[in-house]
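So, could you explain the following?
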Amino acid sequence: MTMQIQQIQRKASIDDRARGGLASILNVLLPGTERLPSGRAVGAHLELLDTVLEADLRLEPAVARAGDLAAASETCTFADIERWVGEDLEQLVFALHSAYYMSSEVRSALGYPGQARRPIALATPEEVCSDELVAPVLARGAVYVPTPE
């Protein structure tokens, strides 16, 4: 008899108040440019962030704490963010940037097509083969590793 094991995935539990604080943090970290939308505009503090946190639940405490502290503060500067999260700054920035770059709006603005199937029949001649692509292989020469007995 085969026993099925169900994997239970816990959903991120960032409340609305903390998400408001995270939106303020995004205004500081990813304010947008002429070509790129802001982190807040693409919702990097909403479902995209949930996807990041579900992939690595270790990021959630730092993100939740930062969101709560930002929501309780009247100001939000980079210095404030550093003070709020201390050594967890890298985790916070990583989580928010990961969510940001998952946005289709951001990828489109960057001209990044995303991960998609690209049939070889639709490739340009440069994509099929180029001297630059093959040169390192030719320069390396033949590779032979004898099979152990």
